[in-house]
Amino acid sequence: MPVSLVTTSLVTTLRAAGCVFAEDEARLLLDTARTSDELDAMVEQRVTGLPLEHVLGWAEFRGLRIAVDPGVFVPRRRTEFLAEQAAALAQPGSVVLDLCCGTGAVGATLDGVDLHAADIDPAAVRCARRNVAAVGGRVYEGDLYEPLPDTLRGRVDVLVANAPYVPTDAIGLLPPEAREYEARVALDGGTDGLAVQRRVAAEASDWLAPGGHLLVETSERQSERTVDIFVQAGLNARVVTCDELDATVVVGRR
């Protein structure tokens, strides 16, 4: 079948399944599939609801292809703003710590730093290790600071955390692609969505170097409460936003 007919048929199939950006998805699937059988299998996965990034095995993030394994939290485009803010604060040789790292996408964009990352999800850790290998990053498996070497205490220049911030009761309102195919631990922020942020901020000063920064992605609605959490933890805090990406980051300084 001519490529144009394959593309048209694929777009029609994807659109019928509810894919809003069917043309773009069709192009990505065609570019990624190595055989017609593989393409058929990928289309079937996508039509049944599997996130496109899990079907492809990667997500684009700040110009990089980030490996994304099934079940692992897919890096959102809004989180590029968090990565940009971290990059603006990091200097060559800075010690950078990425907590709740997921795929390791944020750290993977930071070259020339001493990168450390951690996540509680074993699947995410395996994924992150592949993604940060190119920048020499090290990834630890465990709950927040628990698996980190003590040698990092008081030495971290930039601590970045895309901690889950969806309130538990709101998980059911998320799109099916998120609530059915991504690890719950990467989504659930507790009763008010801020439980993990509180834990990150509470110990941040123990790990930050003097003048070091903590950056956390949050929502615009939650940002004032996130600032309060930072202040209670002894950090000076400010809010930065990006309208284009609908992104909000709270930046704290020790």
Concise overview:
By secondary structure, the chain is of the alpha/beta class. Helices cover 38% and strands 21% of the residues. It folds into two domains: 65 residues, no CATH class; 175 residues, Rossmann fold (3-Layer(aba) Sandwich), CATH 3.40.50.
Commentary on this structure:
By secondary structure, this protein is of the alpha/beta class. The chain folds into two domains: 3-67, no CATH class; 79-253, Rossmann fold, CATH 3.40.50.150. It is built from ten helices and nine strands. The strands form two sheets. Strands 5-4-3-6-7-9-8 form a seven-stranded mixed β-sheet, sandwiched between helices. It has a two-stranded antiparallel sheet with strand order 1-2. The longest helix is centred in the N-terminal third of the chain and has 14 residues, at 3-16. The radius of gyration is 19 Å and the shape is globular.
